[in-house]
Design brief:
heterodimer, A: 266 residues, mainly alpha, MetI-like fold, 0% strand, globular, B: alpha+beta, five-stranded antiparallel sheet
Chain lengths: 266, 361
């Protein structure tokens, strides 16, 4: 009993430490974004929304935010469609080299981003496709499709394979079955896939920086500001990016976990 | 007999090297309740899936209404199936599940709803119409699955062990529901099961399958009283199977010599030859018990090994001195006349008419 309590305390402390290390920098970034002083030092100055006003009046940042929005939403759609197709092909068919096929699809996130970014830049510029907004979309789709695929595949694995046959048996063609059975069944996973891909794309920096050219996204703009001087604007933008990414990830979780709980609750 | 609705002609199904179904010939008639029964892996479910078009026969043809169905896709057939897993759509409500097939057939919304409600009413689940599938009990889900298939008003309904997941008391209730539905609608039911009690309780005809082949087709009574071969006799259970050689032939039958003694068997055929190997069965409920030697023609002295008590019926498991196993089934109140304990001595006897000769194969 006693040792159990000690273990619990140690584990709780451990988890607490992890959360502190992960979230403390973000928390401080949020605090400093409301600080009137230019340099992030303690003691803090007075409360101020100066930096927010500044970024809201900066057309470059507006443009970057718009770019990020376009890139992440297009990426989400493309990556989720790709992810769904691969997950379904894995669920439905058995073929030779299926193992390598799946490994290849899941590979992109394991490649160091800087290498991925360089490779993308080299390849896209050879084809004359770099420096466009949709070059980033293309690269991000490759990067985020595995996330969407993994989450949709998980959902498909929970599906009774008889459901598909049952739909055919009741007169549904293959396309009708896709539309009225497979997609509705995967809907929670598809929505979480969209959110997750959007979140990854929205705050991805390395690939965006290499292939974006003049079409900067928010993370690229942050870096450019930091390179020039120390400016608490960065904290304000960071807070904003963090909020969007977190909301997307949390949304993805809610859709996936909530639905799962519902379907296993019989 | 009316013209057969479905004909299977030399149907064979291979999965790689594995022969799931070999050279199946079967006619299914309009309006009959046909049960296909056999141990798991005997090819019964594969046969059903071929009828639904979910598997294509490797060789042979399946005819429905005189048309070859081999290449017809599942969704172009009218052969709804009630799945063992039920396969209800979890993201749809009860009524949406029932409407699904009608929607696929392009029937308009109000008509769909009218027909779905009609069937929910008929199956006594109308109060659950707007509920989620996950909130229903096993028996209620079963009814939804039935309604979903029957709403299409098919000529034939396929059922794949639909009651296997239900509690015993619910199974009996659903059996009554199924039989009544089948009689009322007059459509053909093809019912796959491994349960003898389900098949015998409901079916007009029973097909016994083993190792991808049909072992016997007949009414439940035929199968029970006159199994054609050892496989069927063993599968049906509650049978005493004795093997030996033909000792002599008389004008009413034959004497067959076994390790447990020589027994007389009445014969309907005269194909038997002296010295030939032969097996016969006696249903466990046709064997009589007596405390002393009955001095009858077919009698064996046995020891009681164990008994199995199921409600009013008791099955006794016995062995004679040559370790041949015997089974006797009787009413519990009849048994109480004898004071039996495991190890007790008892005599078994039966009439020559109760013994049924098996085909040699």
């Amino acid at each position: 009993m006693n040792s159990n309590r000690i273990l619990n305390i140690v584990l709780a402390a451990y988890v607490g430490a992890i959360f502190t290390f992960v979230f403390a920098p973000i928390l401080f970034s949020v605090i400093f974004s409301f600080n009137s002083q230019r340099f992030p030092t303690i003691p803090l100055g007075s409360f101020s929304t100066e930096w927010y006003v500044k970024i809201l009046n900066d057309p470059d940042i507006w443009q970057a935010a718009l770019n990020s929005l376009i890139v992440s939403s297009s990426t989400a759609v493309i990556a989720t469609i790709l992810g769904f197709c691969t997950a379904y092909s894995d669920f439905r068919y058995n073929f030779r080299f299926k193992g390598p096929y799946l490994a290849l699809i899941l590979l992109p996130p394991t490649i160091p981003l800087i290498i991925m970014a360089l490779a993308m830049l080299a390849w896209l510029s050879k084809l004359g496709m770099s420096g466009q907004l949709w070059s980033i979309v293309l690269a991000h789709s490759v990067l985020t499709a595995p996330f969407a695929m993994a989450i949709i595949r998980l959902r498909l694995n929970q599906m009774d394979p008889d459901l598909e046959s049952a739909s055919w048996n009741l007169g549904g063609s293959e396309w009708a079955t896709m539309r009225y059975v497979i997609i509705p069944f995967c809907k929670p996973a598809i929505i979480s896939g969209l959110c997750l891909a959007a979140a990854v794309s929205f705050d991805e920096f390395a690939v965006s920086w290499f292939v974006s050219g003049l079409n900067k996204t928010l993370p690229v703009v942050i870096l450019e500001i930091v390179q020039g001087n120390i400016d608490p604007q960065v904290n304000a933008i960071g807070t904003f990016v963090f909020l969007i990414s977190m909301s997307l990830v949390i949304l993805a979780q809610i859709f996936f976990v909530y639905r799962q709980m519902k379907s296993t609750n019989t | 007999m009316t013209k057969p609705l479905v004909v299977l002609k030399n149907v064979q199904k291979l999965f790689g090297d594995f022969v799931a179904v070999k050279a199946l010939n079967l006619e299914i008639h309009e309006g009959e309740f046909l049960a296909i029964m056999g141990p798991s892996g005997c090819g019964k479910t594969t046969t059903l899936r071929m009828l639904a078009g979910l598997e294509e026969p490797s060789t042979g043809e399946i005819y429905m209404n005189d048309q070859v169905m081999n290449k017809v896709k599942p969704h172009e057939r009218d052969t709804p199936l009630v799945w063992q897993s039920l396969a209800l759509f979890p993201f749809l409500t009860v009524i949406e599940n029932v409407e699904f097939g009608l929607k696929m057939r392009g029937i308009n919304k109000s008509e769909r709803k009218r027909r779905a409600l009609e069937w929910l009413e008929k199956l006594d689940i109308i109060e659950f119409a707007d509920r989620d599938i996950s909130t229903l009990s096993g028996g209620q889900k079963q009814r939804v699955a039935l309604a979903r298939s029957l709403v299409l008003e098919p000529k034939i309904l396929l059922l794949d062990e639909p009651l296997s997941a239900l509690d015993a008391h619910l199974v009996i209730r659903m059996q009554a529901v199924l039989v009544q539905l089948q009689r009322e609608l007059g459509i053909t039911f093809v019912y796959v099961t491994h349960s003898q009690s389900e098949a015998f309780a409901m079916a007009d005809r029973v097909v016994i399958m083993g190792n991808g082949e049909i072992s016997q087709v007949g009414t439940p009574k035929d199968i029970y009283r006159s199994p054609q071969n050892k496989f069927v006799a063993e599968f049906v259970g509650r049978n005493n199977i004795l093997s030996g050689t033909v000792f002599d032939l008389t004008n009413f039958g034959a004497h067959i010599k076994t390790v447990s003694g020589t027994f007389s068997v009445s014969l309907k055929t005269d194909k038997l030859l002296k010295g030939q190997e032969a097996s016969f069965v006696i249903s466990a409920d046709l064997v009589h018990l007596s405390g002393s030697n009955p001095e009858a023609e077919n009698s064996v002295h046995c020891k009681l090994i164990s008994e199995e008590f199921v409600g009013s019926m008791v099955t006794l498991f016995l062995e004679d001195k040559s370790d041949q196993e015997f089974k006797v089934q009787m009413q519990e109140r009849e048994l109480s006349k004898f004071d039996l304990k495991p190890g007790s001595d008892i005599w078994l006897s039966w009439s020559a008419q109760s013994a049924h000769l098996l085909n040699v194969n």
